[in-house]
Amino acid sequence: MLRKLRIALSVSFTVLLTVYLIDFTGTLPQVFKELARWQVIPALLSLNLLVIIVLTLLTFITGRLYCSTLCPLGFFQDVVSRVASFVQKKKRFRYQKSLNWLRWLVVVACVVAFTTGFTFLVGFFDPYSIFMRMSVHMLKPVYLAGNNLMELIFSNFGNHTFYKMSIYLLSGFSLGVALFGFLVIGLMAWRNGRIYCNTICPVGTTLGLAGKAAFVKIRIDESKCNSCGACGRRCKSSCIDTKTHFIDYSRCVVCFDCIDVCSQSAIRFTAKKSKISVQTPVDNSKRTFLFALGATSLAAGKLIASSSVAPFSTKNKAKRQVPISPPGSTGHDNLLSKCTSCHLCVSKCPTGIIKPAFTEYGAGGVMQPMLNFEHGFCNYDCSICSDVCPTGALLPLNKEHKHELQIGQVHFVSENCIVVTDGTHCGACSEHCPTQAVSMVPYKNGLDIPFTRTEICVGCGGCEYVCPATPHKAIYVEGIAKHQKIVLEKAEKKEIEVNDFGF
Questions:
Q1: SS3 state at 484
Q2: Is residue 46 part of a domain?
Q3: Domain residue limits at 204
Q4: Is residue 106 part of a domain?
Q5: How far apart are alpha carbons 235 and 192 in whole angstroms?
Q6: In 262-396, where does DSSP find H-type helix?
């Protein structure tokens, strides 16, 4: 019964989180964003005390139930392991000693990476971030392709329930990282079940300390056990030594598989110790390290990995020198110090303008989100990316604050403008500026040319997106390292009607 309940909760949580992640129609309400906040590392980075307290108490009471119920990467490993069990009829699992030196090496590496500003490295090991990248870069394109196939089929019969969506590569590097995680962790789960959780995962290692002191545990009643070894062969965490009746609670994920397979009812999930239960002494040094880790995680590490920014140039090729961080980040420092590159904001952006960076932020900002206006621009009234962020890297914004927020500044390269090169009328950039930071002024021969006011530009990128100049844009947005507040007069504001095209 316990196992079935655990599986039902795990399936429900992971499926709902995944569907919300890849949903591009807005079918699921935004309240489902709260599912992403019930993860350990995002909760620590955002100082979500409610989640931290609940998950801590849950672990001290029931052990690592979080790992088997709420962790989406744990669900992925269980699915792979289950498929492998049908393919491989041999005995798959046996007790293995814990590789504590490797487990704590990864934890120390994550703490050092966080405190030195390389927070994205934490995301390489964070189970939540790994699963989200796999979903965004691998699962969502497949989902979009399926939607486009349905659109093709239905449209042939005059039914337009579905509409075609653009599919393009967000980042080759991020796709490679997602694919690497999928293959490596998938292979580990295929061969050894939850070995990633119990050997590499920093969340599993730290929760394992609390799991050792849990009030309710999986316990073996030696008076009933006939030493058949079925529980050890079924344990995907490889933490049950059937010869000595020892359970390594630091690795047990409380999946209840051992209880389900025991024919003698010798294994129970209980707070009462059996007559002969074997326990190892608590390693106080590790417990001390847990408290130190918690203190470190609650303190935002100062970013020291910021790269120098090249000086602005007005060459014919308008190349952005400073990346544009998403609204709500307040600037590069906050983004780089808290973002784990889960790419939830990348997936949920309705205009698809948020993409993972490579080296734009420097060595400390690999895979972190930035704005790119190749396929659209930032809707003047939209703040979805800041609303869904679970780590606090993007802070929530209301519409009023969004209208007053400058995330970049407009720049005009006159020699690229078609008014100059082709002697023709345009004005597309001015028409799509919500603050009149771009306006048209007389040029010559009855033509008008763009005039820019950087002090009232919000950096939405509408002007850059619609600029028809090729091969190089005549107008573009340059990022700023720290977001600013602009002051607009009432007369300067425009009422923008947003249609299906985003403007």
A1: strand
A2: yes
A3: 2-217
A4: yes
A5: 10
A6: 284-298, 332-338, 344-348, 384-388
